[in-house]
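User: Assemble these into one structure.

Assistant: Restating your components, then the assembled model:
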Amino acid sequence: MKKTAYLSILVLLVTNITSYAARNANQQPATFINAVFNHHPPKAKAIWLNKTLKQQIADILQHPYHGFRIHYWQQQGKTLWILDEIGKEKPITIGIIIQRHKITRLRVLAFRESRGWEVRQRFFTSQFNQVALKKDHQLDTPIDNISGATLSVRAITKLARVALLLDQSI
Amino acid sequence: MTRHKSRKFTAFLWHRRIGLLAFILVIILAITGIMLNHSHTLKLDRTYIDNSFILNWYGIQPEGEPTSYRVNPLPHSPVISVWQSHLFYNHTLLSTLEQKLRGVVQSDSLIVIALDHAIMLLSDKGELVERIDTSSSFNQVQRLGMKHNHPVIKTTDQQYYLADDEILNWHKTTPEGITWSTSTALSPQQREQLLTAYRGHGLKLERILLDLHSGRIFGHYGSYLMDGVALALLWLASSGLWVWHSRRRKIRHKKHYIKHHR
């Protein structure tokens, strides 16, 4: 009986620690860039936003975009974008890799909200693989929502659309 | 009958007295309540108060002194200032900061602002071009300067990084030949203008309406005053009902009397 109780406590502790680690496992953008380009990252480039592009980004984000320039990295037809958007209260940082105008990988680099950390998991981010942008600036594949993380899902989907739009504009 | 009449008269009398007493405060409560219900539509959360009496009443005053940097040595050069976490381009609020300002330089047409873990680029008109997070690239930034017409930063681990032409990539460099950006003192007139700008972004109209609605604008006892108004409203509703019911009963009695006794 005692053994079962100890075992249950241990399982609970391990589950909680694993879950806490999953919530807080942020990756530095520089580490992500290095990993994507096999430790030989290309020089950063920048895309200047003209009026039309800025308006298109604002339409996707549903709020004005402050800034005229966005960094990106490009090598062998692959572009990498590091973008931020507020989910509910705090910014979510994501890294998106695009090849031939399709997302090949999306990773949540920093999640600062207290809820909705499930969006970091692969079961969610893998939905974006091979997703492209339609003419109306919507994704060509629907992304499943996660209950309790609606705002984070929405923010990440918006950023995926922005990255694809920027990739088309370079 | 006399006792009943007197009770009704007392209720009516107090209904009138309390009604008159709460009149102004009920109007304040109603109007502020309606406005707060439509706060976003009425842009109350985006409207700032610049009336000095109200700002003084709220004690909106920054602590300490501003830290300012001239963008270039020319006499009419724009000034970048930080005063209690508020970043200004001349007297225009750019954003609020959670980091320290480490220096400001001008590189071609871009103004470069160094913070602890970020570089901000502004156009020469003070518009934000880009904010670059440096926390994953360098240690904390300590100083910003210029070397061969390019921005250079010194980090807390005593490393020096020189930016390229477009301020996109930073490469290690040596400390020789760097002109460091230094802070400047504002003239009393400039300081006053900055203070006005700071105070102008310190108090939203929504805050005043919330405080008026709850009574907190009248100080510590203001909320008790508004509690009193709420109780007065309860009394007005009950006494109004009582007076209305009594009058209705009286009219019925009168009609009954006319019908059966005349």
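Chain A has a mean pLDDT of 86.
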